[in-house]
């Protein structure tokens, strides 16, 4: 008897609680929708919502985590199911997982640095030592997408005032505790909830560092109950654990451990559900959390899983009239396109707020447009020093304005990047190039910076440049530069190498220019250089040493809209310059120097054709190393070594074709390019010697992969002089300069 009483008393107490908490007779029970996290598998929530609407089930509360937070926030904000699916179908998830604007939209300064062939990944350098970026992706593009979808007109929003009351869950990195958002910045709350640890940067919000809520509460059943829900519809889209034979890397093992911990906590939460709740677990074999190319399959799986629970769902249905009225009341009310009366850029978290003010200030007195604002934010973000640029539309006394807050990278403002290139022709001739760049940014509100580049290997030297933009949008700039460069240069006579020289160049340069839009730059250049050449080996009848002093003033025009310098598929890069050399500052060379380079790319499907042209001409016969031009290397007269041909005059043209292979829908796309080139060109000592009879004709076949550390290329080149080479090299197909 005592044993029986031990369970009867708790049961009676539980029954009493249920009776006390039950809604009054005739009152409709409040229904809470719980949407769990699961990456791309979370698209199944759309299918579940479609089935719920078809069965006329009203939703009173929504709680979500990660992808469940994204879809839940959209539905709670009044988006229809079809609108939500359109949003997901229209997203280029591969682009979302890449930070910054596309290359053709970058500021000219960033395009200029892009040609330095450095690894994009950077580390911070400061008084506190080395600071590493917290993730692979900062998350700015996802932030902009959510900003455009979840627009709010005040800094803090009570999530209970949304068409459907909403909560989302994130994780505080500092305490490893869950954080439930019920008010504040809706976009940042959802972004934090979906910031996968290690993939997206943590979101700093009100003194806390936040990541994906899946770590602490992937299926927030208790949150929905706490909102007041009487009955729950719970959608669990978590990914099943991998079998042992699939755990072949440290990363997969780490992710398996994390998934196991998440699943264990989820199982504990699901065990608290009652028979009155409905649990939906879509069957999605073959769909992983990163398979964003299978969104439609996940939607269908979600709808099918919901239909299997029709018996439980239909108990929650209301009349057609009541459901229609509720959904009409919950409909989103688009903001429209009000005029922007003011632009307020906050400077409390950025050294270069002035640059952002210039960019976004252009929107003042114009109609509000997500596309236009997003484009300006993306261009400002392209300066490369921001971790995030937030904005919102604020209403004040009937007028609307933009409030913008740029946030500098937490690991800045000084950044170290390195680059490693090597070339081996498999015939005893190889070399390497190591570059290290220290870039100190934020030296003025418009983005002044000091760049120092160290080079070791084929070219050894040091370059120090101070770049100071000024004026509206930082379009004007002045850039003084000092450099030292040493290189071992072969000298050929026809098909034979006759000597090798060690050439050292010390130079100073001052550029003053202006950017015309995002793709065009003009500049005036004053330069002074001193060359020293010493013969290392070769024909003793050649000079042992030589010194040259060069001074000149020139003008350059640059247009650059290429989408990539590694394997361009669209756009053009055109550069033309004229320099007049004279006797100023002790120089002894006189004459003019004309230089032109042009690269054009166009793509049809997976097929790309690229045309290139380069020429360096001195009609007055200027003859110094600083004014010489080089040819040689893969697709730059293939068959010859890198920079093997050198002369006072140079002309070169090429036509390339390459085709990309690999999935275009993959989240982390790493295509393989296979192609061929036809080339013609040569170098000459005298302007009068230039002629078609001496053109060298060459060609190559190659394959390449754009790796994170740089484009890796394997190729074979042959020239009609009989020179041939195999190439294994890092390096881009588009180059800056003529050496």
Give the strand order, joined by hyphens, for the main sheet: 16-17-18-19-20-21-22-23-24-25-26-29-30-31-32-33
Number of helices: 16
Assembly context of the chains: single chain
Q: Report helical residue fraction.
A: 10-25%
Could you tell me the mean pLDDT?
86
First-last Cα distance: 97 Å
β-strand number:
33
Shape: elongated
Structural class: alpha+beta
Main beta sheet: strand number and arrangement? Answer: 16 strands, antiparallel, barrel
The Cα radius of gyration reads 32 Å
User: How much of the polypeptide forms β-strand, as a percent range?
Assistant: 35-45%
**Spans with pLDDT under 50 lasting ≥5 residues?**
1-22
Textual characterization of the structure:
By secondary structure, the chain is α+β, with helices and mostly antiparallel strands. It has 16 helices and 33 strands. The chain has a 16-stranded antiparallel barrel. Strands 1, 2, 6, 7, 9, 10, 11 and 12 form an eight-stranded mixed β-sheet that branches. β18 and β19 (459-470) form a beta hairpin. α2 packs antiparallel against α4, α7 packs across α8 (186-193) and α15 (353-360) runs antiparallel to α16 (370-381). The chain is elongated.
């Amino acid at each position: 008897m005592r044993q029986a009483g031990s369970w009867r008393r708790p049961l009676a107490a539980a029954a009493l609680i249920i009776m006390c908490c039950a809604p009054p007779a005739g009152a409709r029970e409040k229904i809470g929708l719980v949407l769990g996290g699961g990456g791309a598998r979370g698209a199944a929530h759309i299918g579940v919502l479609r089935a719920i609407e078809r069965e006329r089930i009203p939703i009173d509360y929504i709680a979500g985590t990660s992808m469940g937070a994204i879809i839940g926030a959209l539905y709670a904000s009044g988006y229809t199911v079809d609108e939500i699916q359109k949003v997901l179908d229209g997203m280029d998830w591969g682009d979302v997982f890449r930070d910054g604007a596309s290359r053709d939209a970058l500021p000219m300064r960033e395009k200029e640095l892009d040609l330095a062939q450095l690894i994009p990944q950077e580390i911070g350098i400061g008084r506190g030592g080395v600071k590493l970026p917290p993730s692979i992706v900062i998350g700015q593009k996802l932030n902009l997408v959510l900003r455009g979808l979840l627009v709010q007109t005040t800094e803090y929003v009570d999530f209970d005032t949304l068409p459907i009351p909403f909560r989302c869950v994130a994780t505080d990195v500092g305490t490893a505790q869950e954080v439930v958002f019920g008010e504040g910045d809706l976009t940042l709350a959802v972004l934090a909830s979906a910031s996968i640890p290690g993939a997206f940067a943590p979101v700093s919000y009100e003194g806390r560092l936040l990541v994906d809520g899946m770590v602490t509460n992937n299926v927030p059943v208790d949150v929905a109950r706490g909102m007041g829900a009487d009955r729950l519809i719970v959608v669990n889209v978590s990914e099943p654990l991998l079998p042992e034979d699939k755990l072949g890397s440290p990363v997969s093992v780490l992710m398996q451990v994390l998934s196991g911990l998440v699943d264990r906590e989820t199982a504990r939460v699901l065990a608290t559900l009652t028979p009155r709740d409905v649990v939906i677990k879509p069957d999605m074999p073959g769909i992983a959390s990163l398979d964003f190319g299978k969104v439609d399959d996940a939607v269908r799986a979600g709808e099918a899983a919901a239909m299997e629970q029709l018996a439980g769902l239909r108990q929650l249905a209301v009349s057609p009239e009541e459901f229609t009225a509720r959904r009409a009341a919950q409909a989103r009310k688009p903001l429209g396109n009000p005029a922007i009366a003011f632009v307020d850029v906050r400077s409390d978290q950025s050294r270069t707020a002035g640059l952002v003010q210039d960019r976004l200030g252009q929107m003042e007195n114009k109609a509000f447009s997500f596309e236009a604002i997003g484009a300006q934010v993306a261009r400002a973000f392209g300066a490369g020093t921001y971790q995030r640029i937030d904005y919102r539309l604020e209403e004040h006394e009937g007028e609307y304005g933009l409030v913008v807050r740029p946030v500098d990278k937490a690991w800045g403002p000084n950044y170290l990047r390195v680059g490693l290139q090597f070339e081996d022709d498999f015939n005893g001739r190889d070399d390497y190039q190591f570059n290290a760049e220290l870039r100190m940014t934020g030296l003025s509100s418009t983005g002044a910076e000091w760049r120092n580049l160290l080079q070791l290997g084929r070219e050894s030297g040091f370059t120090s440049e101070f770049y100071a933009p000024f004026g509206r949008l930082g379009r004007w700039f002045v850039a003084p530069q000092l450099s030292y460069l040493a290189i071992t240069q072969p000298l050929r006579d026809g098909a034979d190498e006759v000597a090798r020289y060690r050439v050292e160049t010390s130079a100073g340069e001052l550029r003053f220019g202006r950017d015309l839009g995002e793709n065009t730059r003009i500049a005036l250049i004053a330069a002074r250089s001193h060359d020293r050449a010493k013969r290392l080996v070769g024909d003793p009848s050649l000079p042992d040493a030589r010194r040259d002093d060069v001074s000149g003033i020139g003008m350059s025009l640059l247009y650059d809209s290429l989408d990539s310098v590694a394997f361009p598929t669209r756009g053009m890069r055109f550069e033309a310059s004229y320099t007049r050399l004279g006797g100023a500052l002790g120089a002894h060379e006189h004459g003019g120097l004309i230089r032109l380079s042009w690269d054009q790319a166009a793509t049809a499907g997976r097929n790309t054709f690229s045309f290139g042209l380069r020429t360096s001409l001195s009609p007055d016969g200027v003859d110094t190393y600083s004014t010489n031009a080089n040819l040689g290397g893969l697709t730059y007269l293939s068959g010859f070594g890198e920079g093997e041909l050198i002369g006072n005059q140079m002309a070169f043209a090429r036509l390339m074709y390459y085709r990309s292979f690999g999935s275009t829908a993959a989240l982390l796309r790493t295509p393989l390019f296979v192609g061929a080139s036809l080339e013609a060109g040569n170098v000459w000592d005298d302007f009068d010697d230039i002629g078609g009879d001496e053109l060298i004709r060459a060609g190559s076949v190659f394959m390449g992969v754009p790796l994170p550390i740089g484009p890796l290329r394997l190729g074979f080149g042959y020239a009609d002089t009989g020179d041939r080479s195999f190439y294994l090299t890092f390096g881009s197909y588009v180059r800056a300069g003529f050496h």
